[in-house]
Amino acid sequence: MSDPATQVLLVESDTADAVLIQASLAGTGETSFCVERVTSLASALARLGSERFDVILLDLTLSDSQGIGTFEQVFAVAPQALIVVLSLASDEQTARQAVQRGASDYLVKGHVDGHWLPRALRYLIERQAAHDELRGSEARFRAISDASPLGIFVSDAQGGCIYTNAAYHKISGLSFDETLGTRWSRAIHPDDRQRVLAEWGEAVRGLAPFQTEFRFLQSDQSIVWTRVNSGAMSDGRALHGRVETVEDITERKAAEFVLQAAEDRLFEERERAQVTLNSIGDAVLCTDLAGNVSYLNLVAEAMTGWSYKEALGRPLAEVFRIIDGNTREPAASPAERAIRQNRTVGLAADCLLIRRDGLELAIEDSAAPIHNRDGRVAGAVLVFHDVSESRAMVLKMAHLAQHDFLTGLPNRALLTERLAQAIGLAQRRHKQVGLVFLDLDYFKNINDSLGHAIGDQVLQSAAARLTAAVRASDTVCRQGGDEFVLLLAEIEQPLDAALVAEKLLEAFAAPHLIGKHELHVTLSIGISVYPADGNNVDSVLQNADTAMYHAKACGRNNYQFFRPDMNTRAVRRQFLESGLRRALKQGEFRLHYQPQIDLASGAMNGAEALVRWLDPELGVVCPEQFVPVAEECGLIVPIGRWVLREACRQTRCWLDAGLRVVPVAVNISAVEFRQKGFLQGVAMILEETGLDPRYLELELTESILMQNAECSTSVLEGLKAMGVQLAIDDFGTGYSSLSYLQRFPIDTLKIDRSFVRDITIDADDATIVSAVIGMGRNLKQRVIAEGVETREQLAFLRSRQCDEGQGFLFSHPLSLADFADLLARGDVAGMCAR
């Protein structure tokens, strides 16, 4: 059969031209044409509205329409037809314009002949068919591409993007407009970029296929793991570009990371595991219908101890030996149940796999029937994995939930449970229960001066001594920080608890040897006894804690039994602590200043800043009442920082006012001095207030400096480098080494008031004071005697050539206003009788 004739609509008003064209197309070539002629645009539009034509030969000069508008109206109603414009030689410009707007081509009237016209139309028809086929092919490609879960990135020979599909947009987080003209490597995670581009460059240079895995970093910082495959587009002579397929493997990667720690061997066999197990890292063992082993993967080989070759054909019970972890009896085979019941079954809980070498592994598994093509059961597949680590972790977590991670001792939760049990048992047996609450004295100083690593070792050493000092039936618990609790179950009398406390104090008399450090740590111990000191867990614990704080108040390194009146003290301590916190926020602290007098001239050479708390209910509270509480609750550091800043600020104000200002001394506590950043804090306060450092003197006690003499030397030298003056306060009460005293850059020694008080009646005190004055003179250090209250004391100090004095004989601590008046008067020589 011949092909159907090509339907041609000739739109031509010129009869001569129309006859010529019709004659040219009347031949009997390979393609036959059926030509219908109309002479106006209106007729053409009517015919095109009712019938489909393959080719339209359109004259743009008609009786009812002329120019490019003629083409546009025809094209609007027949966009799929092949439109050839018939143009006069003088109007080719309009014909070309029609081609630009959608016409297939144009012919010049007067140049049409019977041989050339049919061939030209056949060529245009074939070209149109090829173009339609290409568009259809592209449409099919785009539909297939957009339906694919794989991302597709097509680049030209220079590497610029010319096409991406919807999956690629989702994976990369980039739109088509964002990818067009860019390179595929744009979205690679920065941490993967160097590796991937190196691999890419090597593959491109060799025109080899490329495959790798890396992360895409989307604009919202989301990470998508991908596998990329790339191949070249080449016609054998030239490279036209490359195609990259991008697979989202985020979920598989997540599964791999979870299993990585326990299943490294699985990753060595990743490709095989993907094919057989769809990327899960479990052991796989298959059996036939008779229950004989037909397959093991590498993980199964390792877990059972049987190689694939050795296990093949052996009974499942021989290769896969499982027992109940509780009864130690053989467990039922899940594979047999799966075959018999024709369904997926799970292994009983707490099952153990006995490996070929006898090692036991805790496992979890499931078994499913394998069917043949007829749907009949042909065997079973077992999927199992080692859960030994996870079960061990569960046990470890259960232990950690009730034990302290640092010392391994029971924690507060376990103590509370055991105390409740002990109270219940003691109640039934008419016994008593002792609770010993203890705290390591000044432990914070060790942490601040030597660091938490040393502090942790001290806690471990303390835990070992506590455990060794009690019975196996008793419980030693770490309450938290440096607090420990001992539960003494079923004691006969409170004296039993006292004996334990004395044993503990004796055990802690010896130093703890931590590295190169020899650390002395004492205990403050509080004791409560059930039922005398409480009939429930909370009250017994609270009262032992209260007794411990009373032991601290009694000088530490002792034990105290709970007494009801201690609660009153505890309430007062809590009242003071909350009051101190309020005082810091609301500015209730004030500084008073006590002059320091040159004993030879009577002039005021300095002053000591002394903090007072102006409580709205208690009135003026002296440091002796609130400083110990501030040290215990950690408020001494912010209070000390306030004192230092306020003293510097006020001194700067006096200088700005033109007063004759003297250096001001500020006491520094041990906690402040050991605080990290203390040196920088002093420098910052001096800078903030604008005070010349020579107007500031810092007073530190001997015990502070000697706790860690090497560290103290470093800090003191830093302060000295700033220009700050340094004094040792309460000198003579500590245990200074003369060698260190020479090394410390000290300006002033302050003789403690306890020696000055009795110098006129106690020969020993007089000798000590004289020795300190002489030592200060030899070391070229200024010596100040504190607590000078009588003229006899003053005369003695003058006779020994003591430099300065401070005490009530000269002046009580003065308020800010009174001290400013003193500075304003200028002449303070009368403060010291000559």
Automatic annotation (TrEMBL):
Catalytic activity: 3',3'-c-di-GMP + H2O = 5'-phosphoguanylyl(3'->5')guanosine + H(+)
4-aspartylphosphate, modified sites: D59
GO BP, sorted A to Z: cellular response to nitric oxide; phosphorelay signal transduction system; regulation of DNA-templated transcription
Domain EAL span(s) in chain numbering: 573-827
Enzyme class: hydrolase
Domain annotation PAC: ranges: 210-261, 347-399
Stated name of the protein: Cyclic di-GMP phosphodiesterase Gmr
